[in-house]
Design goal:
Blueprint lengths: L4 E2 L6 H10 L3 H8 L16 H14 L8 E2 L2 H10 L12 H15 L9 H6 L1 E9 L7 H8 L7 E7 L2 E4 L17 E3 H5 L8 E4 L4 E10 L6 E4 L1 E3 L4 E3 L3 E3 L5 E2 L6 H6 L4 E2 L13
Helix pairs in contact: 1-5, 2-3, 3-4
InterPro entries: Papain-like_cys_pep_sf (IPR038765), Peptidase_C19_UCH (IPR001394), Ub_carboxyl-term_hydrolase (IPR050185), USP (IPR028889)
Enzyme class: hydrolase
GO molecular function: cysteine-type deubiquitinase activity
Length: about 290
Protein backbone atom coordinates (compact mmCIF):
# COMPACT_ATOMS: atom_id res chain seq x y z
CA UNK A 1 0.00 0.00 0.00
CA UNK A 2 1.35 3.38 -0.94
CA UNK A 3 1.14 6.54 1.11
CA UNK A 4 -1.19 9.04 -0.54
CA UNK A 5 -1.38 12.80 0.00
CA UNK A 6 -4.42 14.93 0.93
CA UNK A 7 -5.54 17.95 -1.09
CA UNK A 8 -5.29 21.37 0.55
CA UNK A 9 -8.69 22.79 -0.43
CA UNK A 10 -8.09 26.27 0.95
CA UNK A 11 -6.65 26.55 4.46
CA UNK A 12 -7.17 23.06 5.84
CA UNK A 13 -3.53 21.91 5.94
CA UNK A 14 -3.63 22.12 9.79
CA UNK A 15 -6.28 19.35 9.74
CA UNK A 16 -4.74 17.37 6.87
CA UNK A 17 -1.47 16.82 8.75
CA UNK A 18 -3.35 15.43 11.76
CA UNK A 19 -5.49 13.10 9.63
CA UNK A 20 -2.40 11.93 7.73
CA UNK A 21 -0.45 11.34 10.98
CA UNK A 22 -3.34 9.35 12.49
CA UNK A 23 -3.54 7.21 9.34
CA UNK A 24 0.03 6.07 10.15
CA UNK A 25 -1.03 4.49 13.47
CA UNK A 26 -1.63 0.82 12.54
CA UNK A 27 -4.24 -0.25 15.16
CA UNK A 28 -6.28 2.95 14.65
CA UNK A 29 -6.07 2.75 10.86
CA UNK A 30 -6.94 -0.97 10.80
CA UNK A 31 -9.96 -0.42 13.06
CA UNK A 32 -11.37 2.24 10.74
CA UNK A 33 -10.52 0.34 7.54
CA UNK A 34 -13.09 -2.33 8.55
CA UNK A 35 -16.55 -0.78 8.70
CA UNK A 36 -17.97 -3.74 10.63
CA UNK A 37 -15.86 -2.66 13.64
CA UNK A 38 -18.16 0.31 14.25
CA UNK A 39 -21.26 -0.19 12.06
CA UNK A 40 -23.38 -1.63 14.88
CA UNK A 41 -22.59 1.06 17.48
CA UNK A 42 -25.89 2.42 18.83
CA UNK A 43 -26.18 6.22 18.82
CA UNK A 44 -29.01 8.43 20.15
CA UNK A 45 -31.55 9.61 17.51
CA UNK A 46 -30.44 12.79 15.73
CA UNK A 47 -26.81 12.37 16.83
CA UNK A 48 -24.59 13.98 14.17
CA UNK A 49 -21.25 13.10 15.80
CA UNK A 50 -21.25 9.57 14.37
CA UNK A 51 -20.78 11.22 10.97
CA UNK A 52 -17.15 11.83 12.03
CA UNK A 53 -16.62 8.09 12.52
CA UNK A 54 -18.16 7.24 9.13
CA UNK A 55 -16.20 9.92 7.26
CA UNK A 56 -12.91 9.04 8.96
CA UNK A 57 -13.43 5.39 8.01
CA UNK A 58 -14.14 6.40 4.40
CA UNK A 59 -11.00 8.56 4.34
CA UNK A 60 -8.84 5.72 5.70
CA UNK A 61 -10.18 3.42 2.98
CA UNK A 62 -9.50 6.06 0.31
CA UNK A 63 -5.95 6.64 1.57
CA UNK A 64 -5.20 2.93 1.69
CA UNK A 65 -6.89 1.84 -1.53
CA UNK A 66 -4.35 -0.25 -3.50
CA UNK A 67 -6.17 0.74 -6.73
CA UNK A 68 -5.53 4.47 -6.22
CA UNK A 69 -4.32 5.95 -9.47
CA UNK A 70 -3.92 9.48 -8.07
CA UNK A 71 -1.10 10.63 -5.80
CA UNK A 72 -3.59 12.39 -3.53
CA UNK A 73 -7.22 12.19 -2.39
CA UNK A 74 -9.67 14.87 -1.28
CA UNK A 75 -10.55 15.11 2.42
CA UNK A 76 -13.58 17.29 1.53
CA UNK A 77 -16.35 15.07 2.99
CA UNK A 78 -14.28 14.40 6.13
CA UNK A 79 -13.69 18.13 6.64
CA UNK A 80 -17.34 19.02 6.00
CA UNK A 81 -18.20 16.63 8.86
CA UNK A 82 -15.56 18.36 11.04
CA UNK A 83 -17.05 21.83 10.30
CA UNK A 84 -20.55 20.56 11.12
CA UNK A 85 -19.66 18.54 14.24
CA UNK A 86 -17.36 21.22 15.69
CA UNK A 87 -20.06 23.88 15.08
CA UNK A 88 -17.61 25.74 12.79
CA UNK A 89 -14.85 25.86 15.40
CA UNK A 90 -12.65 24.18 12.75
CA UNK A 91 -13.06 25.31 9.17
CA UNK A 92 -11.80 24.59 5.66
CA UNK A 93 -11.33 28.26 4.73
CA UNK A 94 -9.54 29.44 7.87
CA UNK A 95 -6.27 28.23 9.41
CA UNK A 96 -6.53 26.45 12.76
CA UNK A 97 -4.17 25.07 15.38
CA UNK A 98 -3.19 21.47 14.62
CA UNK A 99 -2.97 20.44 18.29
CA UNK A 100 -6.39 21.98 19.09
CA UNK A 101 -7.82 20.03 16.19
CA UNK A 102 -6.07 16.81 17.25
CA UNK A 103 -7.39 17.11 20.81
CA UNK A 104 -10.95 17.88 19.70
CA UNK A 105 -10.95 15.18 17.00
CA UNK A 106 -9.69 12.36 19.24
CA UNK A 107 -12.15 13.25 22.00
CA UNK A 108 -15.02 13.61 19.50
CA UNK A 109 -14.22 10.21 17.92
CA UNK A 110 -14.03 8.62 21.39
CA UNK A 111 -17.48 9.97 22.35
CA UNK A 112 -19.00 9.12 18.93
CA UNK A 113 -17.79 5.52 19.33
CA UNK A 114 -19.77 5.32 22.58
CA UNK A 115 -16.81 6.03 24.86
CA UNK A 116 -16.85 7.85 28.18
CA UNK A 117 -14.46 8.37 31.09
CA UNK A 118 -15.02 4.76 32.13
CA UNK A 119 -15.93 3.12 28.81
CA UNK A 120 -12.98 2.34 26.54
CA UNK A 121 -12.80 2.73 22.76
CA UNK A 122 -10.04 2.25 20.20
CA UNK A 123 -9.04 5.91 20.85
CA UNK A 124 -8.09 5.64 24.51
CA UNK A 125 -6.93 2.06 23.95
CA UNK A 126 -4.27 3.36 21.55
CA UNK A 127 -3.35 6.83 22.90
CA UNK A 128 -4.35 7.17 26.56
CA UNK A 129 -1.77 7.23 29.31
CA UNK A 130 -1.99 8.47 32.89
CA UNK A 131 0.00 10.61 35.28
CA UNK A 132 0.02 12.03 38.77
CA UNK A 133 0.03 15.82 39.04
CA UNK A 134 1.52 17.27 42.24
CA UNK A 135 0.61 20.89 42.86
CA UNK A 136 1.32 23.38 45.62
CA UNK A 137 0.22 26.97 45.91
CA UNK A 138 2.95 29.60 46.34
CA UNK A 139 2.65 32.44 48.87
CA UNK A 140 2.36 35.98 47.41
CA UNK A 141 5.89 37.31 46.68
CA UNK A 142 5.38 40.58 48.59
CA UNK A 143 5.13 38.86 52.00
CA UNK A 144 7.97 38.73 54.53
CA UNK A 145 9.83 35.39 54.95
CA UNK A 146 8.07 34.88 58.30
CA UNK A 147 4.62 35.40 56.77
CA UNK A 148 5.47 33.01 53.95
CA UNK A 149 6.61 30.37 56.49
CA UNK A 150 3.32 30.70 58.36
CA UNK A 151 1.27 30.31 55.18
CA UNK A 152 3.25 27.25 54.08
CA UNK A 153 2.11 25.51 57.29
CA UNK A 154 -1.58 25.93 56.39
CA UNK A 155 -3.68 23.36 54.54
CA UNK A 156 -4.20 25.68 51.54
CA UNK A 157 -0.45 25.66 50.74
CA UNK A 158 0.19 21.94 51.22
CA UNK A 159 1.06 19.84 48.17
CA UNK A 160 -1.91 18.04 46.61
CA UNK A 161 -1.91 15.11 44.19
CA UNK A 162 -4.42 14.35 41.45
CA UNK A 163 -4.57 11.45 39.00
CA UNK A 164 -5.08 12.46 35.40
CA UNK A 165 -5.27 10.81 31.97
CA UNK A 166 -3.80 12.20 28.75
CA UNK A 167 -4.03 11.61 25.00
CA UNK A 168 -0.84 13.59 24.33
CA UNK A 169 1.98 15.11 26.39
CA UNK A 170 2.79 18.82 26.16
CA UNK A 171 6.55 19.46 26.15
CA UNK A 172 7.77 22.98 27.01
CA UNK A 173 10.74 24.57 25.28
CA UNK A 174 13.34 26.62 27.16
CA UNK A 175 12.97 30.35 26.55
CA UNK A 176 14.78 31.21 23.33
CA UNK A 177 17.79 33.47 24.04
CA UNK A 178 18.09 36.79 22.26
CA UNK A 179 21.82 36.36 21.54
CA UNK A 180 23.07 37.36 18.14
CA UNK A 181 26.26 36.21 16.48
CA UNK A 182 28.84 38.52 14.90
CA UNK A 183 26.69 38.81 11.75
CA UNK A 184 23.77 40.03 13.85
CA UNK A 185 21.91 36.79 13.13
CA UNK A 186 19.80 35.40 15.95
CA UNK A 187 21.31 32.17 17.25
CA UNK A 188 18.77 29.35 17.11
CA UNK A 189 19.26 27.14 20.18
CA UNK A 190 19.08 23.34 20.11
CA UNK A 191 17.85 21.01 22.82
CA UNK A 192 17.71 17.19 23.07
CA UNK A 193 14.23 15.66 23.39
CA UNK A 194 15.24 14.05 26.70
CA UNK A 195 15.86 17.49 28.27
CA UNK A 196 12.30 18.62 27.66
CA UNK A 197 10.93 15.21 28.69
CA UNK A 198 12.39 15.82 32.17
CA UNK A 199 9.14 17.69 32.93
CA UNK A 200 7.60 14.23 33.47
CA UNK A 201 10.25 12.66 35.74
CA UNK A 202 8.23 13.32 38.90
CA UNK A 203 10.95 15.61 40.32
CA UNK A 204 11.22 18.66 38.03
CA UNK A 205 9.08 21.52 39.35
CA UNK A 206 7.70 24.29 37.18
CA UNK A 207 5.85 27.46 38.13
CA UNK A 208 2.41 28.02 36.62
CA UNK A 209 0.67 31.37 36.92
CA UNK A 210 -3.07 31.93 36.93
CA UNK A 211 -4.73 35.34 36.96
CA UNK A 212 -4.45 35.64 40.75
CA UNK A 213 -2.26 32.81 42.04
CA UNK A 214 0.98 30.94 41.37
CA UNK A 215 1.50 27.20 41.69
CA UNK A 216 4.47 24.84 41.56
CA UNK A 217 3.67 21.65 39.70
CA UNK A 218 5.46 18.40 38.94
CA UNK A 219 4.32 15.48 36.84
CA UNK A 220 4.89 11.74 37.20
CA UNK A 221 3.91 9.27 34.48
CA UNK A 222 2.00 6.26 35.80
CA UNK A 223 0.96 4.55 32.54
CA UNK A 224 2.39 4.77 29.03
CA UNK A 225 0.04 4.26 26.06
CA UNK A 226 0.86 1.94 23.13
CA UNK A 227 1.27 5.04 20.90
CA UNK A 228 2.55 8.26 22.44
CA UNK A 229 1.88 11.74 21.04
CA UNK A 230 4.23 14.60 21.98
CA UNK A 231 3.14 18.19 21.43
CA UNK A 232 6.12 20.56 21.51
CA UNK A 233 4.69 23.92 22.59
CA UNK A 234 6.21 26.55 20.30
CA UNK A 235 3.65 29.32 20.50
CA UNK A 236 2.96 31.76 23.30
CA UNK A 237 0.18 34.33 23.10
CA UNK A 238 0.89 37.77 24.47
CA UNK A 239 -1.67 40.58 24.65
CA UNK A 240 -1.04 41.74 21.12
CA UNK A 241 0.68 38.98 19.17
CA UNK A 242 1.72 35.33 19.00
CA UNK A 243 5.39 34.42 19.38
CA UNK A 244 7.02 31.29 17.96
CA UNK A 245 9.95 29.68 19.75
CA UNK A 246 12.43 28.55 17.03
CA UNK A 247 14.41 26.12 19.27
CA UNK A 248 15.42 22.98 17.38
CA UNK A 249 14.55 19.74 19.20
CA UNK A 250 16.93 16.88 18.40
CA UNK A 251 15.36 13.46 18.73
CA UNK A 252 16.21 9.91 17.69
CA UNK A 253 13.70 8.35 15.29
CA UNK A 254 13.92 4.89 16.86
CA UNK A 255 14.27 3.47 20.37
CA UNK A 256 13.19 6.49 22.41
CA UNK A 257 13.19 4.88 25.87
CA UNK A 258 10.99 6.41 28.57
CA UNK A 259 11.88 3.90 31.31
CA UNK A 260 13.86 6.45 33.34
CA UNK A 261 10.78 8.71 33.57
CA UNK A 262 8.83 5.98 35.36
CA UNK A 263 9.00 5.10 39.04
CA UNK A 264 10.23 1.58 39.90
CA UNK A 265 6.71 0.31 40.62
CA UNK A 266 5.47 1.68 37.28
CA UNK A 267 8.51 0.25 35.43
CA UNK A 268 7.58 -3.20 36.71
CA UNK A 269 4.15 -2.92 35.04
CA UNK A 270 5.61 -1.91 31.66
CA UNK A 271 7.26 -4.58 29.56
CA UNK A 272 7.85 -2.13 26.70
CA UNK A 273 8.97 1.46 27.22
CA UNK A 274 10.62 2.27 23.87
CA UNK A 275 9.02 4.11 20.96
CA UNK A 276 9.82 4.59 17.27
CA UNK A 277 8.72 7.65 15.31
CA UNK A 278 5.86 6.99 12.86
CA UNK A 279 4.72 10.56 12.12
CA UNK A 280 6.03 14.09 12.61
CA UNK A 281 4.08 17.33 12.12
CA UNK A 282 6.10 20.51 11.62
CA UNK A 283 4.87 24.13 11.54
CA UNK A 284 6.60 26.03 8.78
CA UNK A 285 6.89 29.80 8.60
CA UNK A 286 5.75 32.60 10.89
CA UNK A 287 3.21 32.24 13.71
CA UNK A 288 -0.46 32.86 13.04
Amino acid sequence: WCIVGLNNIKANDYANVVLQALSNVPPLRNYFLEEENYREIKRPPGDIMFLLVQRFGELMRKLRNPRNFKAHVSPHEMLQAVVLCSKKRFQITKQGDAVDFLSWFLNALHMALGGSKKKKTIINGVFQGSMRIFSKKLPPPDLTPEEKEQLLETEEFKETMTESTFLYLTLDLPTAPLYKDEKEQLIIPQVPLFNILAKFNGITEKEYKTYKENFLKRFQLTKLPPYLIFYIKRFTKNNFFVEKNPTIVNFPITNVDLREYLSEEVQAAHKHTTYDLIANVVHDGKPG
